[in-house]
């Protein structure tokens, strides 16, 4: 047993506080806004130049000119704004984004993040991730605990090209919540029905299991 | 702004001037304008949410 995708999204949603400015990576993180706790409203930033991203449009309301950084059709909330890339990355590099929630292919024991390319595979680039991991005040990784082939994605050292070094604050997966601390990875929480042993078996790096 | 040659691809070519309040890029930066009135604006990732009423009906049925 573990979190399903929506359960994980709800768990990640509990990390966010009302009024935060949040940037979401493509994939799993896009599920979070639909699972925020009651009373929590965040302002979503998309690095292509939107502050105040709304939900996906209903069928027939799509606007080809209104898309997020993942090129998905979106809508905007009341009070939203559009701006150019210089302003958008000024928000990120200037430390105005409270939380970035990103997917990952690998995270290392020291918080290195690899989430943009697999050598030999065609990629379009890392987008805003390289800036977000250094500019956002808190970097959360939201991902499946292990790769599709079952191999660990939380590893001692990343083997894939890095997006950033020592940038991840907290890892939230279908199995566990893990903090990246100066003393290494610390298990903060296991998913419902998941044992500490399950998490240790699926993790490819030393994991401190604190007093519970 | 840094380019020696900048070409603007525009959908609507306004015979009158664009209001100064609406200008994002002043003409000084442009060398060429390409008017493409009937360009197809394609969507790369089509993402939608269910129509609220339809979703509610579906929920009642299940």
Account of the protein in words:
- The complex is a heterodimer of chains A (212) and B (62).
- Chain A is of the alpha/beta class and 212 residues long.
- Chain A has 4 helices and 13 strands.
- In chain A, the strands form 2 sheets. Chain A has a 10-stranded mixed β-sheet with strand order 4-3-2-1-5-8-10-11-12-13, with helices on both faces.
- The longest helix of chain A is centred in the N-terminal third of the chain and has 9 residues, at 5-13.
- Chain A is globular, with a radius of gyration of 17 Å.
- Chain A starts with a helix and ends with a strand.
- Chain B is an alpha+beta fold and 62 residues long.
- A two-stranded parallel ribbon of chain B has the order 1-2.
- The longest helix of chain B has 10 residues, at 52-61.
- The model of chain B has no long low-confidence stretch (mean pLDDT 85).
- The chains are: A alpha/beta (212), B alpha+beta (62).
- Chains A and B meet through loops of A and loops of B.
- Compute the separation of the termini of chain A in Å: 20 Å
Q: How much helicity do the residues of chain A have? A: 10-25%
Q: Unreliable stretches of chain A, pLDDT < 50, 5 or more residues?
A: none
Please tell me what the overall shape of chain A is: globular
For the record, give the distance between the C-alpha atoms at the N and C termini of chain B, rounded to a whole number: 57 Å
Order of helices and strands of chain A: HEEEEHEEEHEEEEEHE
Question: The biggest beta sheet of chain A, please?
Answer: 10 strands, mixed
Estimated share of beta-strand residues of chain A: 25-35%
**Helix and strand element order of chain B:** EEH
Mean pLDDT of chain B: 85
Low-confidence stretches of chain B: none
Q: Which two chains have the most extensive interface, and how many residues on each?
A: A-B, 16 and 13 residues
Rounded to an integer in angstroms, the radius of gyration calculated over CA atoms of chain B is 21 Å
Computed structural class of chain B: alpha+beta
Would you tell me the overall average pLDDT of chain A?
A: 94
Strand order of the largest sheet of chain A: 4-3-2-1-5-8-10-11-12-13
Oligomer: heterodimer
Strand order of the largest sheet of chain B: 1-2
Largest sheet of chain B: 2 strands, parallel
Q: Output the number of helix runs of chain B.
A: 1
| Number of extended strands of chain A | 13
